[in-house]
From TrEMBL:
Residue ranges occupied by any Thioredoxin domain in the UniProt entry: 197-339
Source organism, top-level taxon: Bacteria
Organism whose genome encodes this protein: Aureibaculum algae
Gene Ontology molecular function, alphabetical: oxidoreductase activity
Subcellular location, principal: other
Protein name: TlpA family protein disulfide reductase
Compartment annotation: Cell envelope
GO cellular component, one term: cell envelope
A biological-process GO annotation: cytochrome complex assembly
UniProt keyword list: Cytochrome c-type biogenesis, Disulfide bond, Redox-active center
Length: 340
C-alpha cells in the first residue's frame, strides 16, 4: 500500500512539474519540412520581429522563437503565408514551396488556429477578396448571390473550426460581419467605378512619354497581352517588386507579352524617375503618366493605392483589372492558363 502511495505521489509530482513547465515556457517552437526547397532560410517576421530559420538540405527546419505578438509572415523564397504563433506553442508545418496555400499541413500545439487561417485564406483566394472590385463590378442580383454564398461559407468555416481561442473566434466573427457590411454599404458607389472595367470590357487607354520623351500608347501593343505596373519612385512596396518584375521580363521577353511600368511621380520629379530607371537598370517599357493620381488611365481604373498591376488582352479588353504581383506565383499560373 505504501508503495502504491509512493508511486502516486511521484506521478503527481511529475504531472505538476510538466504542467509548470508548460505554463512557464516563454518561447514557441516551429518545425517542419519544405518540399521543393527554394532557399536556405525561412523568415518569420512582423512589424517588430524578425528571425531567420535555417532550412537543411533535406528541407527540414526547427527552431525556437520568443514572440510577443500572435501573427507573423512566413516567407520561403517566393512562398509566403500568415501563421499564428504564441509562446508555449509547439507547431509543426509541412508544405510545398511551389503551392504553399494548398499544401500547408499543420499539427501540434497551436495547429487549430493555423488550420482555420489556412482554410480562410483558401476561401479568400476562391472569392478574390484581395480584389473587392470582383464583387462591385457585378450587377445587383449577382452581387447579392455572391455575398450571401461567401457569408454562409465564412460562418460554416468558423463554426466547424476546432481549438480556437475564444477571443480569436470573437474577433473573426466581428471581422466577417464588418466585411459583409463594407461590401453591402459600398456597392452603389463602387459599382459605378468598377462596372466599366470588368473583365472583358475595353481597357482605358494611355499615351504617355517614355524616358526619351517619345509617346507610348496602349494601341502600340495591339495583338499582345499587356501587363501594366502602376508605380512611383517613392513607393517602397513598388520598389520591392522590381527584382521579380525584371525576372518576369527576362522570362517572357520573347513571348506575346509587353510589360509596361507606368510611373505616377510628379512631373517635377521626372529627372528623379529617369535616374532610378537608369540606376536600377529597369527593363520593359518605362513611361510616366501626366497627372499623377489624376491621370486618365489611373482614374479610369479607380486606382487609389500602388503598386497596382493590370492585365490587358491582345484585343485591348481587360483580362484582370487587379492582376497578381510579379512576386506572386499566381501570376505565372494565370499566364500559363492564357498560354502566354
Amino acid at each position: 500500500m505504501n508503495k502504491i502511495a509512493t508511486v502516486l505521489v511521484v506521478l503527481m509530482v511529475m504531472i505538476s512539474c510538466k504542467k509548470e513547465e508548460m505554463v512557464s515556457k516563454d518561447y514557441a517552437k516551429l518545425s517542419g519540412k519544405v518540399t521543393n526547397v527554394q532557399d536556405s532560410l525561412i523568415t518569420i517576421s512582423s512589424r517588430n520581429y524578425n528571425k531567420s530559420i535555417k532550412v537543411s538540405d533535406d528541407g527540414t527546419f526547427s527552431d525556437t522563437l520568443k514572440v510577443n505578438e500572435d501573427f507573423f509572415m512566413l516567407v520561403h523564397g517566393t512562398a509566403r503565408t500568415i501563421i499564428s504563433l504564441k509562446n508555449g506553442d509547439n507547431l509543426n508545418l509541412n508544405f510545398d514551396s511551389e503551392d504553399l496555400l494548398n499544401t500547408a499541413e499543420f499539427s501540434g500545439q497551436g495547429a487549430g488556429t493555423n488550420k482555420y487561417m489556412a482554410s480562410k485564406m483558401k476561401l479568400e483566394d476562391e472569392y478574390s477578396l484581395s480584389n473587392p472590385s470582383s464583387f462591385f463590378e457585378l450587377d445587383k442580383s449577382q452581387f447579392d448571390k455572391k455575398v450571401s454564398a461567401l457569408s454562409t461559407k465564412m460562418e460554416t468555416l468558423l463554426n466547424n473550426a476546432s481549438d480556437l481561442d475564444s477571443t480569436f473566434t470573437a474577433q473573426e466573427t466581428e471581422g466577417n460581419k464588418r466585411f459583409m457590411e463594407y461590401l453591402s454599404s459600398n456597392y452603389d458607389a463602387q459599382h459605378v467605378i468598377f462596372a466599366p472595367i470588368a473583365k472583358g470590357k475595353p481597357s482605358p487607354t494611355f499615351s504617355y512619354p517614355n524616358t526619351n520623351g517619345k509617346l507610348v500608347a496602349l494601341e502600340d501593343f495591339k495583338g499582345k497581352y499587356v501587363y501594366v505596373d502602376v508605380w512611383a519612385t517613392w513607393c517602397g512596396p513598388c520598389i520591392q517588386e522590381i527584382p521579380s518584375l525584371k525576372t518576369l521580363h527576362s522570362d517572357f521577353e520573347n513571348k506575346n507579352l509587353a510589360i509596361i511600368s507606368m510611373s505616377i511621380d510628379k512631373m517635377a520629379d521626372q529627372e528623379k524617375w529617369k535616374k532610378m530607371v537608369a540606376d536600377k537598370n529597369l527593363t520593359g517599357t518605362q513611361i510616366m503618366a501626366d497627372k499623377e493620381w489624376e491621370s486618365e488611365f489611373v482614374k479610369g481604373y479607380g486606382i487609389t493605392g500602388i503598386p497596382r498591376f493590370i492585365l490587358i488582352g491582345p484585343d485591348g479588353n481587360i483580362v484582370d483589372n487587379n492582376a497578381p504581383r510579379p512576386s506572386d506565383p499566381a501570376l505565372r499560373t494565370l499566364f500559363a492558363e492564357l498560354e502566354i
